[in-house]
From TrEMBL:
Residue intervals of the Nudix hydrolase domain: 7-137
Enzyme class, spelled out: hydrolase
Protein name: Phosphatase NudJ
NAD is among the record's keywords: no
UniProt family annotation: Belongs to the Nudix hydrolase family. NudJ subfamily.
Length: 171
C-alpha cells in the first residue's frame, strides 16, 4: 500500500439554457482550447451552491441562479492500481441575468458562447471532457433533483455532555 493520501477533487458546473442554446466557455487547457460549461473547483468553506454561483460569475460574467441539480458525476483519470485523479462533479441547472459589462473573466477563459445541443454535439472533439455533452443530454432528458437534496452541515469542535451530565437513558 502506498503512503499517498487519496483525495477526490470536487467540482461544480452550470448548465444554462436560453432560447435553445447553452452557455459555454472556451478555455485554455493543457490539451489546447476546449469547450466546457462554466465550472470549477469547490473552495474551502464553500457550499456547492455558492461554488457554482461563484464559478459561473468568474468564468462567464453571468450571475447564475441555480434551480436544480442535474446530476453528480465521478470521473477517474489514472492507470489501474494507481490512485490517479478522481473528480466528483456536481452539475446544476438554472438561469442567468444579463452579462456584467466590463467584468474580467478568469485568465484561462478566452470567451463565452451560446451553442445549440446539435452544435455542441458536432464539436465533441473540442469538449474538455465527455461530461460536457452528458450533462446537457441529462438536462434535456429532464433529469432534475431539488436543490435541498444536497445538504451542507457545518461541524465545529466536538461537543460532548457537560461535566456531571448523564448520557443515555436510565432503566
Amino acid at each position: 500500500m502506498n503512503d499517498e493520501t487519496w483525495t477526490p477533487h470536487v467540482t461544480v458546473a452550470a448548465v444554462i439554457e436560453r432560447d435553445g442554446r447553452f452557455l459555454l466557455v472556451e478555455e485554455h487547457t493543457s490539451a489546447g482550447l476546449r469547450l466546457n460549461q462554466p465550472a470549477g473547483h469547490l473552495e474551502a468553506g464553500e457550499t456547492l451552491y455558492d461554488a457554482v454561483v461563484r464559478e459561473t460569475l468568474e468564468e462567464s460574467a453571468y450571475a447564475f441562479s441555480p434551480e436544480a441539480l442535474v446530476g453528480m458525476y465521478m470521473t477517474h483519470f489514472g492507470k489501474p492500481g494507481e490512485s490517479g485523479t478522481t473528480y466528483l462533479r456536481f452539475t446544476y441547472c438554472g438561469s442567468v441575468a444579463a452579462q456584467a459589462e466590463n467584468r474580467a473573466l478568469d485568465p484561462d477563459i478566452v470567451r463565452t458562447l451560446w451553442m445549440s445541443a446539435d452544435e455542441l454535439r458536432a464539436a465533441s472533439e473540442r469538449h474538455r471532457t465527455p461530461l460536457v455533452m452528458q450533462c446537457v443530454d441529462d438536462y434535456l432528458a429532464g433529469k432534475r433533483v431539488p436543490l435541498d437534496f444536497v445538504q451542507t452541515h457545518a461541524v465545529g469542535p466536538a461537543v460532548g455532555p457537560k461535566a456531571g451530565q448523564q448520557t443515555g437513558s436510565k432503566r
